[in-house]
Design brief:
Order of helices and strands: EEHEHEHEEHH
Number of helices: 5
Structural class: alpha/beta
Number of domains: 1
Helix content: 40-55%
Strand content: 15-25%
Strand order of the largest sheet: 5-4-3-2-1-6
CATH topology: Transcription Regulator spoIIAA
Largest sheet: 6 strands, mixed
CATH superfamily: STAS domain
CATH class: Alpha Beta
């Protein structure tokens, strides 16, 4: 798998997040910071997550995607659009209940956005731990059947706080 990258675009309230390669917890501080920028905007019209070039997403990345979807639905009344063709990622999204939260498409979108790399964030260990904990709690909230998969991790992270 190739090293993960996150590219973004914001054009007049239309936000695009493009996940490329193997997106892991090491990028989640940067992703979370960018999402906070979206959440701080009062003019959000559309949010798209392009996973067409993603090779893999870890559970922390999935948890942050859940956070994005839940916030956009609650605050802006919109569902995040996800574009993905990777059968493994699509299966994971389905098993985790993301099909109830996102509008998932397998075709290639016609998007002409000027993408730039997301700003790198070197988060402190405590901040990373907090983000990982929040992400996994959101995954359990989204799909309670996944609690068996994440209970030990959540307990360990909570005991470290």
């Amino acid at each position: 798998m190739s090293e993960g990258r996150i590219l973004v675009s914001d054009e007049e309230g239309n936000y695009l997040i493009k996940l490329v390669g193997d997106v892991r917890v090491t990028l989640c501080g940067s992703l979370n910071r960018h999402m906070e920028t979206i959440f701080g905007s009062s003019d959000v019209k559309n949010v798209v997550v392009d996973m067409l070039e993603a090779e893999g997403l870890d559970s922390t990345t999935l948890g942050l995607m859940a956070k994005l979807g839940l916030h956009c639905r609650k605050q802006y009344g919109i569902d995040v659009q996800v574009f993905c063709q990777n059968p493994s990622i699509l299966r994971t999204l389905d098993c985790m209940g993301f099909d109830d939260l996102f509008d998932i498409f397998q075709q290639v979108p016609n998007i002409n956005a000027k993408l730039h790399s997301i700003a790198s964030v070197n988060a402190e260990v405590d901040e990373i731990r907090k983000q990982v904990l929040e992400a996994h709690k959101l995954l359990v909230q989204l799909n309670p059947e996944s609690s068996n998969d994440f209970t030990d991790l959540i307990r360990a992270l909570e005991s470290d706080q």
